[in-house]
Design a protein that fits this description.
binds fe (iii) ion; alpha/beta; 9 helices; binds zinc ion; two-stranded antiparallel ribbon
Protein backbone atom coordinates (compact mmCIF):
# COMPACT_ATOMS: atom_id res chain seq x y z
CA UNK A 1 0.00 0.00 0.00
CA UNK A 2 1.18 3.49 -0.87
CA UNK A 3 -0.22 6.04 1.60
CA UNK A 4 0.04 9.32 -0.22
CA UNK A 5 -2.02 12.47 0.28
CA UNK A 6 -1.95 16.16 0.96
CA UNK A 7 -3.17 18.86 3.23
CA UNK A 8 -6.96 19.40 3.04
CA UNK A 9 -9.46 21.66 4.77
CA UNK A 10 -12.28 20.29 6.94
CA UNK A 11 -14.41 23.39 6.27
CA UNK A 12 -17.03 21.41 4.31
CA UNK A 13 -17.09 18.63 6.90
CA UNK A 14 -14.99 15.58 7.69
CA UNK A 15 -16.70 13.02 5.48
CA UNK A 16 -16.50 15.57 2.63
CA UNK A 17 -12.76 15.87 3.26
CA UNK A 18 -12.43 12.10 2.81
CA UNK A 19 -14.42 12.30 -0.45
CA UNK A 20 -12.14 15.07 -1.68
CA UNK A 21 -9.10 12.94 -0.85
CA UNK A 22 -10.52 10.07 -2.90
CA UNK A 23 -11.26 12.41 -5.82
CA UNK A 24 -7.58 13.39 -6.12
CA UNK A 25 -6.19 9.86 -5.75
CA UNK A 26 -5.12 10.23 -2.12
CA UNK A 27 -4.97 7.33 0.35
CA UNK A 28 -4.30 9.50 3.40
CA UNK A 29 -4.54 13.22 4.16
CA UNK A 30 -3.70 15.90 6.68
CA UNK A 31 -5.95 18.61 8.10
CA UNK A 32 -5.82 21.41 10.64
CA UNK A 33 -7.78 20.73 13.80
CA UNK A 34 -8.80 24.41 13.84
CA UNK A 35 -7.94 27.68 12.10
CA UNK A 36 -4.14 27.41 11.68
CA UNK A 37 -3.62 31.07 12.57
CA UNK A 38 -6.36 31.38 15.16
CA UNK A 39 -7.72 29.34 17.99
CA UNK A 40 -11.38 28.70 17.32
CA UNK A 41 -12.42 25.12 16.72
CA UNK A 42 -15.82 24.23 15.29
CA UNK A 43 -18.06 22.02 17.40
CA UNK A 44 -17.68 18.36 16.46
CA UNK A 45 -20.51 16.60 14.67
CA UNK A 46 -20.15 12.99 15.85
CA UNK A 47 -22.20 11.62 12.96
CA UNK A 48 -19.94 13.34 10.42
CA UNK A 49 -16.90 11.88 12.20
CA UNK A 50 -18.46 8.41 12.09
CA UNK A 51 -19.21 8.89 8.38
CA UNK A 52 -15.54 9.70 7.76
CA UNK A 53 -14.47 6.64 9.75
CA UNK A 54 -16.74 4.46 7.59
CA UNK A 55 -15.23 5.93 4.45
CA UNK A 56 -11.66 5.42 5.72
CA UNK A 57 -12.42 1.76 6.46
CA UNK A 58 -14.20 1.17 3.17
CA UNK A 59 -11.30 2.53 1.12
CA UNK A 60 -8.34 1.30 3.18
CA UNK A 61 -6.90 4.70 4.00
CA UNK A 62 -3.56 4.93 5.77
CA UNK A 63 -3.10 6.85 9.02
CA UNK A 64 -4.39 10.44 8.92
CA UNK A 65 -2.40 13.34 10.30
CA UNK A 66 -4.14 16.13 12.18
CA UNK A 67 -1.97 19.24 12.41
CA UNK A 68 -2.01 21.62 15.38
CA UNK A 69 -2.32 25.36 14.61
CA UNK A 70 0.92 27.24 13.94
CA UNK A 71 0.09 29.82 16.57
CA UNK A 72 0.65 27.63 19.60
CA UNK A 73 4.00 27.79 21.38
CA UNK A 74 4.36 25.52 24.42
CA UNK A 75 7.85 26.91 25.17
CA UNK A 76 7.25 30.65 24.87
CA UNK A 77 8.78 32.87 27.55
CA UNK A 78 5.25 34.25 28.04
CA UNK A 79 3.27 32.16 30.53
CA UNK A 80 -0.10 33.02 28.95
CA UNK A 81 1.14 31.85 25.53
CA UNK A 82 2.25 28.57 27.10
CA UNK A 83 -1.11 28.19 28.84
CA UNK A 84 -2.93 28.78 25.53
CA UNK A 85 -0.78 26.07 23.90
CA UNK A 86 -1.53 23.63 26.71
CA UNK A 87 -5.30 24.23 26.51
CA UNK A 88 -5.31 23.96 22.72
CA UNK A 89 -3.29 20.75 22.64
CA UNK A 90 -5.42 19.19 25.39
CA UNK A 91 -8.65 20.14 23.60
CA UNK A 92 -7.35 18.82 20.27
CA UNK A 93 -6.47 15.48 21.84
CA UNK A 94 -10.01 15.21 23.23
CA UNK A 95 -11.42 15.96 19.77
CA UNK A 96 -9.10 13.42 18.14
CA UNK A 97 -10.86 10.65 20.04
CA UNK A 98 -13.70 10.97 17.52
CA UNK A 99 -11.14 9.56 15.03
CA UNK A 100 -9.39 6.99 17.20
CA UNK A 101 -5.88 5.76 16.53
CA UNK A 102 -4.70 8.53 14.19
CA UNK A 103 -1.70 10.87 14.32
CA UNK A 104 -1.53 14.41 15.70
CA UNK A 105 1.44 16.54 14.67
CA UNK A 106 2.71 19.79 16.14
CA UNK A 107 5.67 22.12 15.76
CA UNK A 108 7.57 21.75 19.05
CA UNK A 109 7.86 25.53 19.52
CA UNK A 110 10.26 28.46 19.75
CA UNK A 111 12.13 29.10 22.98
CA UNK A 112 11.96 32.89 22.35
CA UNK A 113 15.39 33.56 23.81
CA UNK A 114 15.26 31.34 26.90
CA UNK A 115 17.71 28.88 25.39
CA UNK A 116 17.31 25.40 23.92
CA UNK A 117 17.44 23.57 27.25
CA UNK A 118 14.65 25.70 28.74
CA UNK A 119 12.60 25.25 25.56
CA UNK A 120 12.97 21.49 25.58
CA UNK A 121 12.01 21.23 29.22
CA UNK A 122 8.89 23.43 28.80
CA UNK A 123 7.71 21.35 25.80
CA UNK A 124 8.17 18.09 27.72
CA UNK A 125 6.37 19.61 30.72
CA UNK A 126 3.39 20.53 28.53
CA UNK A 127 3.24 17.04 27.04
CA UNK A 128 3.37 15.51 30.51
CA UNK A 129 0.39 17.66 31.48
CA UNK A 130 -1.81 16.81 28.49
CA UNK A 131 -1.07 13.17 27.61
CA UNK A 132 -3.30 10.63 29.32
CA UNK A 133 -3.10 6.82 29.20
CA UNK A 134 -6.54 6.49 27.58
CA UNK A 135 -5.82 8.63 24.48
CA UNK A 136 -5.53 6.50 21.32
CA UNK A 137 -3.75 9.20 19.30
CA UNK A 138 -0.01 9.18 18.63
CA UNK A 139 1.41 12.69 19.08
CA UNK A 140 4.15 13.62 16.64
CA UNK A 141 6.95 16.16 17.01
CA UNK A 142 7.76 17.65 13.62
CA UNK A 143 11.38 18.05 12.52
CA UNK A 144 11.92 21.79 12.07
CA UNK A 145 14.10 24.00 9.85
CA UNK A 146 15.93 25.51 12.83
CA UNK A 147 14.70 29.02 12.03
CA UNK A 148 15.37 31.63 14.74
CA UNK A 149 14.80 30.14 18.20
CA UNK A 150 12.86 27.12 16.88
CA UNK A 151 13.24 23.89 18.85
CA UNK A 152 13.49 20.67 16.82
CA UNK A 153 15.95 21.59 14.08
CA UNK A 154 18.36 18.97 15.43
CA UNK A 155 17.42 15.32 15.92
CA UNK A 156 19.08 15.50 19.35
CA UNK A 157 16.52 18.10 20.49
CA UNK A 158 13.59 15.86 19.54
CA UNK A 159 15.26 12.91 21.26
CA UNK A 160 15.63 14.94 24.42
CA UNK A 161 11.90 15.84 24.41
CA UNK A 162 10.91 12.19 23.84
CA UNK A 163 13.15 11.11 26.72
CA UNK A 164 11.45 13.49 29.13
CA UNK A 165 7.87 12.50 28.32
CA UNK A 166 6.51 9.98 30.78
CA UNK A 167 3.95 8.44 28.38
CA UNK A 168 6.66 8.25 25.73
CA UNK A 169 4.90 5.36 23.95
CA UNK A 170 2.25 7.91 22.86
CA UNK A 171 4.90 9.93 21.04
CA UNK A 172 6.48 9.78 17.59
CA UNK A 173 8.14 12.00 14.99
CA UNK A 174 7.02 13.44 11.65
CA UNK A 175 9.91 14.13 9.28
CA UNK A 176 9.44 17.12 6.96
CA UNK A 177 11.75 16.80 3.94
CA UNK A 178 11.92 20.58 3.38
CA UNK A 179 12.61 21.26 7.04
CA UNK A 180 15.37 18.66 7.48
CA UNK A 181 17.15 19.93 4.36
CA UNK A 182 16.82 23.49 5.59
CA UNK A 183 18.17 22.31 8.95
CA UNK A 184 21.31 20.99 7.23
CA UNK A 185 20.52 17.28 6.79
CA UNK A 186 21.30 16.37 3.18
CA UNK A 187 18.20 14.30 2.51
CA UNK A 188 18.46 14.90 -1.25
CA UNK A 189 22.16 14.02 -1.58
CA UNK A 190 22.59 11.40 1.15
CA UNK A 191 19.25 9.86 2.16
CA UNK A 192 20.88 6.78 3.70
CA UNK A 193 23.23 8.95 5.75
CA UNK A 194 20.35 11.07 7.10
CA UNK A 195 18.25 8.01 7.96
CA UNK A 196 21.23 6.37 9.69
CA UNK A 197 21.67 9.52 11.75
CA UNK A 198 17.92 9.64 12.52
CA UNK A 199 18.03 6.02 13.61
CA UNK A 200 21.09 6.54 15.80
CA UNK A 201 19.71 9.63 17.57
CA UNK A 202 15.93 9.09 17.64
CA UNK A 203 15.27 5.57 16.34
CA UNK A 204 13.45 4.84 13.08
CA UNK A 205 10.70 3.09 15.05
CA UNK A 206 9.63 6.58 16.21
CA UNK A 207 9.14 7.82 12.66
CA UNK A 208 5.41 7.75 11.90
CA UNK A 209 4.81 10.20 9.02
CA UNK A 210 6.61 12.15 6.29
CA UNK A 211 5.81 15.69 5.14
CA UNK A 212 6.88 15.54 1.52
CA UNK A 213 7.84 19.03 0.38
CA UNK A 214 10.51 20.43 -1.89
CA UNK A 215 12.43 23.46 -0.59
CA UNK A 216 12.84 26.89 -2.15
CA UNK A 217 16.17 27.19 -0.36
CA UNK A 218 19.44 25.22 -0.38
CA UNK A 219 20.72 22.79 2.26
CA UNK A 220 21.14 24.45 5.67
CA UNK A 221 19.26 27.67 4.76
CA UNK A 222 17.05 27.59 7.92
CA UNK A 223 14.22 29.29 6.00
CA UNK A 224 11.24 26.88 5.79
CA UNK A 225 9.77 27.82 2.41
CA UNK A 226 8.06 24.85 0.76
CA UNK A 227 8.25 24.31 -3.02
CA UNK A 228 6.27 22.12 -5.38
CA UNK A 229 7.73 18.65 -5.96
CA UNK A 230 10.62 19.01 -8.39
CA UNK A 231 10.53 22.81 -8.31
CA UNK A 232 13.01 23.25 -5.46
CA UNK A 233 16.50 22.30 -4.30
CA UNK A 234 15.58 18.69 -3.46
CA UNK A 235 14.36 17.64 -6.90
CA UNK A 236 12.15 14.84 -8.21
CA UNK A 237 14.87 12.16 -8.08
CA UNK A 238 15.22 12.71 -4.31
CA UNK A 239 11.48 12.11 -3.83
CA UNK A 240 11.70 8.94 -5.93
CA UNK A 241 14.32 7.65 -3.45
CA UNK A 242 12.34 8.84 -0.40
CA UNK A 243 8.98 7.25 -1.26
CA UNK A 244 10.63 3.97 -2.25
CA UNK A 245 13.13 3.67 0.60
CA UNK A 246 12.65 0.40 2.52
CA UNK A 247 12.77 2.23 5.86
CA UNK A 248 10.10 4.75 4.79
CA UNK A 249 7.79 3.19 2.22
CA UNK A 250 5.20 1.95 4.74
CA UNK A 251 4.69 5.48 6.19
CA UNK A 252 2.00 8.01 5.24
CA UNK A 253 3.41 10.73 2.93
CA UNK A 254 1.67 14.12 3.16
CA UNK A 255 2.21 16.93 0.67
CA UNK A 256 2.31 20.47 2.09
CA UNK A 257 3.36 22.02 -1.18
CA UNK A 258 1.97 25.37 -2.44
CA UNK A 259 -0.92 23.95 -4.48
CA UNK A 260 -4.64 24.06 -5.05
CA UNK A 261 -6.52 20.76 -5.38
CA UNK A 262 -5.61 20.19 -9.05
CA UNK A 263 -1.93 20.76 -8.29
CA UNK A 264 -2.10 18.24 -5.45
CA UNK A 265 -3.83 15.73 -7.73
CA UNK A 266 -0.97 16.14 -10.25
CA UNK A 267 1.72 15.68 -7.58
CA UNK A 268 -0.03 12.60 -6.17
CA UNK A 269 -0.18 11.16 -9.72
CA UNK A 270 3.51 11.97 -10.25
CA UNK A 271 4.54 10.27 -6.99
CA UNK A 272 2.34 7.27 -7.78
CA UNK A 273 4.12 6.95 -11.13
CA UNK A 274 7.49 6.92 -9.32
CA UNK A 275 6.46 4.38 -6.71
CA UNK A 276 7.87 0.88 -7.24
CA UNK A 277 5.67 -1.94 -6.00
FE1 LIG B 1 4.05 21.49 10.08
FE1 LIG C 1 5.58 20.11 7.70
ZN1 LIG D 1 7.30 24.08 6.84
Amino acid sequence: MFFIGCHLSPSAGYRAMGETALSIGASTFQFFTRNPRGSRAKAIDPSDMQALRDLLDAHGFGPLVAHAPYTINPCSKDARTREFARLTLADDLQRMEYLPGQLYNFHPGSHTGQGMEAGISLIAETLNEILTPDHTTTVLLETMAGKGTEVGGRFEELREILDRVTLTEKMGVCLDTCHVSDAGYDIAGDLDGVLTEFDRIIGLDRLRAIHINDSLNPLGAHKDRHAKIGAGYLGTAAFDRIINHPALRHLPFLLETPNELDGYAAEIALLRSLRKE
